[in-house]
Amino acid sequence: MKANNTVIKVCMGTGGIAAGGSEVIDAFRTELNTAGIAATVEKNCLMHKVGCRGLCAKDVLVDVIINKEKTTYQYIKPEMVSRIVKEHIIENNPVIDWAVGDDYHNFHKKQLKVVLSDCGSIDPEDIDAYINGKGYEAARKVLTTLKPEEAIEEIKASGLRGRGGAGFPTGVKWEVARKQNSKQKYIICNADEGDPGAFMDRSVIEGNPHAVIEGMIIGAYAIGSDKGYVYIRAEYPLAVERLRKALSDAKTKGFLGKDILGTKFSFDIKVKLGAGAFVCGEETALIASIEGQRGMPRAKPPFPVYSGLWGQPTVINNVETFANVPYIIRNGAKWFSSFGTEKSKGTKVFALTGKIKNSGLIEVPMGIPLREIIYDIGGGIEGGKLLKAVQTGGPSGGCIPADMLDTPVDFESLAKAGSIVGSGGMVVLDEDNCMVNMAQYFLQFTQMESCGKCVPCRIGTKRLLEILDRITKGKGKEGDIELLEKLSADIKAASLCGLGQTAPNPILSTIKYFRNEYEAHLKGKCPAAVCKELLTYYILEEFCKGCGACLRACPSKAITGEKKKLHKIDPAVCIKCGACFDVCKFKAVKKE
Amino acid sequence: MEKTLEKILKDTRENEGNLISILQDIENAFGYIPENAVNWLASKLDINPSIFYGIATFYAQFHLKPRGKNIITACCGTACHVKGSDRLINGLKQELALPEGEETTKNMEFTLEKVNCIGACSIAPVFIINKKVHGKASADKLIKEIRSIKGSKNEGK
Amino acid sequence: MIKLTINGKTIEVAEGTTVLDAAKMLNIEIPTLCHHPKLTPFGGCRLCIVEVKGVPRPLTSCTTPVSEGMEVTTSTPALEGLRKTVLELILSDHPNDCMVCEKAGDCTLQELAYFYGIRENRFGGERRIYGKKDGNPFIERDMEKCILCGRCVKVCDEVQGVGAIDFAYRGFKSKICPTFEKDLDCEFCGQCVAVCPTGALTGKMWQLRGRQKDIKEIDTTCSYCGTGCNLTLHVRQNEVVRVTSKEDTWNEGWLCVKGRFGYSFINSPDRLKKPLIKRNGKFEEASWNEALDYISAKLREIKEKHGPDSIAGLSSARCTNEENYLFQKFMRTGIGTNNVDHCARL
């Protein structure tokens, strides 16, 4: 066999590395060396490369391509590598047992990849791989053949709207910035992806950092800026590393720096690391943070596009927004606006997680029914449980109940349903999830992340959380639900920034669709059996084998019973930690 | 300490640094934000140290107390939450005998901290033990890992 | 100039004016806690929200610049409802011990609670409790009463240029404190006390010295230096119990530590009220005429014996410009020497 026709691609995103991607690569190197074969072991970014198509749950995903014939393996561990090398690479006999199945292929079928189109097919650390796939052609076209106004016109015609949450038309923002009569303007890429349950921006930067850079170059040229910043979370070490490498490579190749591509246009990008504050995703707080201050938002107007970083006109766009730009320029505004709905054009990347079989990163055309995402792409609910709701938009969003699954996923429809597209987190909840507990979880988050500047958010979210706390502890009072609604409405109306203005959304939307669960809590019951204080654990006589596993696991010695005889839980001693429930192999422990 | 701080000061002046990047450098160099480091830099830069303190307490990344030798980071993202990370955290607190409200064990061996979503939701619940990501974590696996760290320390004695 | 209407009244104001200032010109009252006319707008208390036609959500009038044709409404049932919620939220995290609070009767929060008739509070809950008291000598910092309006932080930074305090932490745990939450160690100018709208910052020397209603205010000029700041002495039973300065004075109401807190000499038993002459090794009280005669005789004697240049005059920064002028004139023409100097030059 000809070894140099063999390419092995290993997913090396954060998910791939966590699952042991580096060890798998090492194992391949060792095995191939021992076997005396030269093959290219490519570092593949999980969501970007072949395997990465987003299905991180099946990591480590490995592609073995021999003479262009590809086999994809899932759940690969280092010890499995020798068999793949021996049987597949040497004997050309793919190890079918370990190859991916139908769900893997279905996962990709209904997706439409624009932003993620190069993710998973190129090495993110190799600028040439991006250039060979037409990378930086859009920047060349814009800089050498278009006037800034023409570039803006193209983006406006495409209908691209900000992917960070608010959905403001990108071209309009650029146009306003262009018109500002100021010597210094700034362009900022907001990569402070803070929504819990969202990892779109991380994946895009890890998988295709050059698309973001190219988008920023085009944006800078359009508005007339020579200085850009990427504000990125320090919690994303791999994305930061790849971004830094990409920036330095782009500089070496002359896409950044002085007189780019022989034009009079100069532009450079600096990386600023966030220091761990969700509110810095808000644009005025982000600006304060880049300036080195506490990330406290300020009132708008004036909007940053008039007075932003250091008081100068500043355009802030999200990672995904910038990553769309080169593809729009390359393929035309018409092409882009052919996807999506009338008001929401193009595609959207979502992080599909929670109680779903195929959790991972997906990109779908705007307007796709939620049902298709959950069942066709996501493969349905884990463990045969019943779907309860889909939470979108993270702590600023709301939930779509199971009976509204035909809701199209676009800016307008989700807003109408009481939620938002947001930055793209999509968490699937099943019958075992308590909606009051979910609201409490998000309020805990926003309350902790409130900057403390304005009263409604600082004290109001605290009071909301306290009311939710007492409801989940069975200490709720009559009128608490109405009080939640009233206070929520006031916080939304009176808060200074987007964080406070949207923080009550998870409460309002769960009350709207699951008021019965709130009412049940007021009566002392948690229907999903989640809220600890409302639970009792007991052992079912008919299932208990007397194995003693629960007795050993119990940290508070609440369980008694002799070997091979029925065990019992003393409710007075039980601390409701759930350890017995987790260890019982016979489903004999019940909670209610 | 002064040498390290002088280097931080020099880097700051050369690379358009700001108060946040200075604090990040201090945190990287010492593992936390020592008060005298802040005071030294504040006097060199002629900025009142209270401004540094305001920033250091605003951002989650900065720690005002020294931390343990081993850092266990629990992701508190939505996916981890719905998959039961709270219970695992409580289990770890028991295993480490952490007093209520404390993050670091008395013998300075372990620090257990919660962080906002690290974006590895597909493999939730996620814990990071000494920079290594552990996906699909379970109580058994975590406790085993911690006991092996404790064990290797005892062998070393 | 920009033309806008507020509550149906038309007004023309300069570009860059805020809606709050424009309303003030029309004598329209808008409640606020965090705004201070001499400090940059903050927009944190949310009380000064107004409705602007065409804008879906209320805007804070302290931060919003006027624009041509703007139609502003400052009071609607919805706005008043939001203001009431905000006040209730603030009071739900406040000691509400007005009966013993130093600031009672002079407190903006108390006044607003009164106007909005807040007797009951819908939002009970956890309150910030700070055990530690600040041990500095001048400023009582009762941070449980702090509403985080940020005025003290801004006055310290923007007016005084010191930055001794800043916001720390975030969310409900936010507090305003010196570095590493130590005792305040600054110039103690007390500007922070002057701008605090609640009882969070008061003078330690003022404690339990009388309510504002029993106090007579007497305007005067500070005698500490030639700057001549305007002072308002607060006098109760013929005793100065605190010192403030009015905002419409030329020093804009700002004072330094001496002007604000250095008044205890007035009633000090050690204070010299009559000249003393040392006779037989002991100071004895004398009349002004006696003392001045004694000094002029001595000066003349020295001048005649050793010449005018054997005498030098040193003047004080506590004198006014006029006094200093007269002093140098006296030295040059009266004594006949140029040996005259002033302590502020050193």
Any overview of this molecule?
The complex is a heterotrimer of chains A (592), B (157) and C (346). Chain A has 592 residues and is an alpha/beta fold. Chain A folds into five domains: 3-108, 3-Layer(aba) Sandwich (Glutaredoxin); 134-337, NADH-ubiquinone oxidoreductase 51kDa subunit (Rossmann fold), CATH 3.40.50; 347-430, Ubiquitin-like (UB roll) (Roll); 435-522, Up-down Bundle (de novo design (two linked rop proteins)), CATH 1.20.1440.230; 535-591, 2-Layer Sandwich (Alpha-Beta Plaits). Chain A is 40% helix and 14% strand. Chain A contains 23 helices and 17 strands. Chain A has helices at residues 14-18, 21-35, 81-90, 102-109, 127-132, 137-145, 148-158, 170-179, 200-207, 209-223, 237-252, 283-290, 319-331, 333-337, 370-377, 411-416, 435-449, 455-472, 480-494, 498-502, 505-522, 549-553, 579-583, and strands at residues 6-11, 40-44, 62-66, 69-73, 186-191, 227-232, 268-273, 314-318, 347-354, 360-365, 387-392, 398-401, 425-430, 537-539, 559-560, 568-569, 589-591. Chain A has a five-stranded mixed beta sheet, sandwiched between helices. A four-stranded mixed beta sheet of chain A has the order 2-1-3-4. In chain A, helix 7 (148-158) packs across helix 10 (209-223). The longest helix of chain A has 18 residues, at 455-472. The N and C termini of chain A lie far apart (62 Å). The model of chain A is unreliable at 44-52 (pLDDT under 50). In chain B, helix 1 runs antiparallel to helix 2 (19-30) and helix 1 packs across helix 3. Chain B contains seven helices and four strands; from the N terminus they run H-H-H-H-E-H-H-E-E-E-H. In chain B, 52% of the residues lie in helices and 11% in strands. Chain B has helices at residues 2-14, 19-30, 35-45, 49-58, 78-82, 85-96, 139-156, and strands at 70-75, 110-115, 127-129, 132-134. The model of chain B has no long low-confidence stretch (mean pLDDT 88). The longest helix of chain B is centred in the C-terminal third of the chain and has 18 residues, at 139-156. Chain B has two domains: 2-58, no CATH class; 70-155, 3-Layer(aba) Sandwich (Glutaredoxin), CATH 3.40.30. By secondary structure, chain B is an alpha+beta fold. Chain C is α+β, with helices and mostly antiparallel strands and 346 residues long. Among the domains of chain C are: 2-75, Ubiquitin-like (UB roll) (Roll); 214-267, N-terminal domain of TfIIb, CATH 2.20.25.90; 272-306, no CATH class; 311-346, no CATH class. Chain C is 24% helix and 18% strand. A five-stranded mixed beta sheet of chain C has the order 2-1-5-3-4, covered by helices on one side. Chain C has a three-stranded antiparallel beta sheet with strand order 10-11-12. Chain C has a two-stranded antiparallel ribbon with strand order 6-9. The interface between B and C is medium-sized, with 15 and 14 residues.
